[in-house]
Amino acid sequence: MLYKKVMEEILLKKPIRILCLEDNECDRELLEITLKANSMDCEFVHAKTQKGFESALEQNTFDLIISDFSLPAYDGMTALTAARKVQAETPFIFFSGTIGEERAIESLKSGATDYVLKDRRDRLITAVQRALREAREHAERKQLAEQLRQAQKMEAIGQLAGGVAHDFNNLLAVIQGNAELALMNASTLDDQTRENLTQITAASERAANLTRQLLAFGRKQAIRSQPLNLNDGINNLAKMLRRIIGEHICLQCNCDPAPLFVQADVSMMDQVILNLVVNARDAMPQGGQLIISTEKVGISEPYVRLHQEAQTGEFVCLSVSDTGCGIAPEYLPRIFEPFFTTKEVGKGTGLGLATIYGIVKQHHGWIDLSSKVGVGTTFKVFLPAIPSPAATATPPEVEPASLGGGTERILLVEDEAAVRLMTRRILRKFGYQVIEAASGREALEIWRSQGTGIDLLLTDVVMPDGINGRDLAEQLRRQTPGLKVVFMSGYSLNVISKDTDFLNRDNNYFLQKPCHSQILIDTVRRCLNKATSPVA
Fold this sequence. Notes:
This protein is 45% helix and 20% strand. By secondary structure, it is an alpha/beta fold. The chain has four domains: 2-138, Rossmann fold (3-Layer(aba) Sandwich), CATH 3.40.50; 140-217, Helix Hairpins; 225-384, Heat Shock Protein 90, CATH 3.30.565; 409-529, Rossmann fold (3-Layer(aba) Sandwich), CATH 3.40.50. Helix 1 (2-12) packs across helix 6 (124-183) and helix 13 packs parallel to helix 14 (469-479).
């Protein structure tokens, strides 16, 4: 089956480019007639001398090289050596009337693909087909091996990014939380101190965004997926995109007229589109054309064989093309790595494309990239297509701007001392009574002594000593069904556990560290205000 498919691709290719080294005019004509008589569309470049042969190698690429073995002032073995230096992967066949058995074996050991005697030219077609087939299969294996190596490297970087992001998040939670606490007493601060604290909170927010991008690259952040018509997403962003790219770039949206639904996180898809558009804009400083298009495509086995991350089936393809400077070939293998950028210092973090890669992979898709220096670049994002969902009329939940504090008793469980101290100070600032524990085991001891008076459990999810936040909540709920719980973590949901359904149960909330003080207070208040539901 593979042979048949490969041969179909070879025969459909228009034309097969062949470099022929032959000084005898009659033999050249015979070679052409033999190949063309067997339905092979060939384009020949002929050379008679060493200079002509080596010049052709330098100036063009070929699908096949066919060479005589004995030529005036030149020989086939020298030609073979020259070809292997310049075009090592191109099949090389000797077509000779003088090559003997020993020299034929020597040529094969030196890298020749095959040899055919001129008085046995009936075997030439078979030799050519086999050489082209093996070259194509070798190219496919090499491409797949490179894709596997790249995927493994990206996965390792993603794992590292996810772990580092957790530590950053805890540090940022302390920095941001303490700065916000200080700003709550703004009336007692002088202007310079207030400005300094404001700068600290703004910088910590930017740093938090960077860690979120790292988590996106590592495919470790939580997804709030829903059926999304990708065309609507593009149309909703179009006005903003035109402002971002400027008047010197012409934006054209060619969305499929039919709705194209995918199961996706809306904000993440917006981020994918925005990052691709910004990269295209930066590649066209002098202006150009930017085309965003969508279509539904069927992916078949031949495509999957050449794209390791691809899958067969129905997909929605989002394409973003520009007429910019293009990407140099040596940069393409690293283009999705975090912190890798070809932009000037200060012009980019190198996380934009890394973020896109992580988001797309997390949505079970892949990216196809093609680029040519001086011509432009096209990114194609493939996402699994889903049927159009039935319309729903669920009104959006309206939340007040701020819910305020309270006087309830909260059991705060956090193993990071600095984070625990900062969280306690914020809660007490808003009137809550706080009981602290540094681990799950310590929290159980506190519960045994005074659990009946605790209104809410606020706990980190990942903790030492063998009892994590989920285990702690489940043990306490066996004693007090309906206990209200707010989970928090510097990790994302996907790192915490493959099973995150427990976070969506009644009386449960989740906070991603770092978060603003007001978000912490509002979440605690919202959880306390919610009517208690029995917990299974």
